[in-house]
Amino acid sequence: MVVGTRRVIAGVNGSVRSLAALRVGAAEARSAGAELLPVLAWTPAGGEIAYIRSPCPPLLRVWEQDARDCLHTALDEAFGGMPDGLVVHLVIVRGAPGPSLVWIAGRPEDLLVVGCGGWGRLGCTVRGSVSRYCLAHARCPVLAVPAPEMIRELRPWHRWRPEDFAAPRT
Fold it and tell me: I want to staple 144 with a disulfide (CB 3.0 to 4.6 A). Which of 52, 92, 99, 116 is the partner?
């Protein structure tokens, strides 16, 4: 990677919101002639402190492979594979998503693209909001992509039933 090259960093976790951010990030990279860096940040199950207390290298390799698979699956779902006409550098980092994205998008000419509106109030209180963290701490412009229309129409207070996902009978 050449120093001074414009980059668009897109946060990916496999959710529909992150796929929307990935698509918008690719469009921004294409229009600016920039490189696209899809970034997936992950932590061991139970968190870093739990892993330090009882490390298990075989499990760590499994989690790393799961992260790679998740990133490749996201690219497949968003574009049907690697996007055409773009320089793409896949980034997988072990760490919390917000701080990891802000660290990678550390240059003023970078553009950080994240999905927003993922959790309710309780979820944001317990897990934190990656988009809010990035908006508050990034040293570059941040583009927070709203949830796709389909998700906004399905209210978060809707109680899901198994029949909501059943295929119609013919």
Answer: 116
What stretches of the chain adopt beta strand conformation (E)? Answer: 7-11, 35-42, 91-94, 111-115, 142-145
How much is the average pLDDT of 41-53? 90
Residue 2 lies in a domain: no
What count of residues does the chain have? 170
Q: How many CA atoms lie within 13 A of 59 on its CB side?
A: 10
Please state the φ and ψ torsions of residue 100, each to the nearest 5 degrees. Answer: -65, -45
Whether 67 contacts 42, CB under 8 Å: yes
Structural domain count, the chain: 1
CB neighbour list of residue 73: distance below 8 Å, 6 or more residues apart: 14
pLDDT class of 145 with cuts at 50, 70, 90 = very high
For the whole model, what pTM was predicted? 0.79
Q: Is residue 63 part of a domain?
A: yes
Task: Examine the pLDDT at 17 and tell me if it is beyond 70.
Answer: yes
Domain assignment present for residue 155? The answer is yes
